[in-house]
């Protein structure tokens, strides 16, 4: 089944396909805790944002939300959406909040939540931004009070190279705008505007600990809530923050059930991680799923010990009939991890930006395969978008490459999940 490009953005991150007119009732719902308090809002219209067949939500009104996090009652939720504008938070509650995110909990900060916790500097680091309610000095830098404008027509420009917004067109909303708010330099921006009353960056993502963080400045009232494009951005932000929740896990964290070894590489499970490396005798090879898959969205969270030459196989039928999202540093032509390799055709698309790769930490591939179309995102940057007919189905797997220079290489996989289509 070939999926139209206009719907691809939904498929890349979406953990369901409701926008394609399909139902995946077997997929587990994403549990969302919506935090409110400290700022009025249009309740009925706002909560309709979360009425989706793949989302289950519950509201927590401050100060109860912070108390829930402290007690551990928020652990069962996949994503926390902040729509509060709250200031009081005790030191034990701060510590519990940070620990929750260090374990990996999706977090989304909407609109006036950018103004929460003015006296807690770590919150700005968590969400990657801050609206200043007064003139403040932080780390020796003076920040004047941020400004607000009401009822502005905002032309939102969409970064289609981000997995949340790939497939979504630019749109226009009427909203309350903020100006003079802070955005962290490491933020991965996916929404911008040239509206004079607004800061230019109005939607971004980042990581904090193991948690996926989204901040969206827009979202004052029903004029925004009811906008179809805004609703789609919110839904996909939830799915992105929750990933890989909702996908079918291919690795159980305990053993290699469902996988088969090809060659003599060493494949083990260590501390819940899938680990591949050359054997003591220099043996190399692949680890492949027993099942084959046609069209799908694949999520892989991994890290490697360098120097390395590895990759994620997909639609693998034979060594000469497959695709691979490469993990490497190639000299001629110069390209880096995220490059799309096809045996016999070499590189179908090349990542030419080495800065996209975290050589010391964890990296994420999101791979879409639909019909003759393959798209690869590396750490939320699109690195491949090609049409090719070499293979339309096959196994998924990992490679340990030959070569003495790669004897110390190790690929560790924290999670791998798939949404077959």
Strand fraction: 35-45%
Number of domains: 2
Q: Quick one: how many beta strands?
A: 29
Helix count equals 7
SS-based class: mainly beta
Highest-level CATH class of the largest domain: Alpha Beta
- Low-confidence segments, given as residue ranges, are 1-26
Radius of gyration: 22 Å
Mean pLDDT: 92
Question: Major sheet: size, sense and barrel closure?
Answer: 9 strands, mixed
The CATH architecture term of the largest domain is 3-Layer(aba) Sandwich
CATH evolutionary superfamily of the largest domain: Class I glutamine amidotransferase (GATase) domain
Q: Output the strand order for the largest sheet.
A: 2-1-3-4-13-12-11-8-9
| CATH topology descriptor of the largest domain | Rossmann fold
The proportion of residues forming helix, as a percent range, comes to: 10-25%
Could you say which overall geometry the principal axes of the C-alpha atoms support? elongated
The end-to-end span amounts to 8 Å
Summarize the structure.
By secondary structure, this protein is mainly β. The chain contains 7 helices and 29 strands.
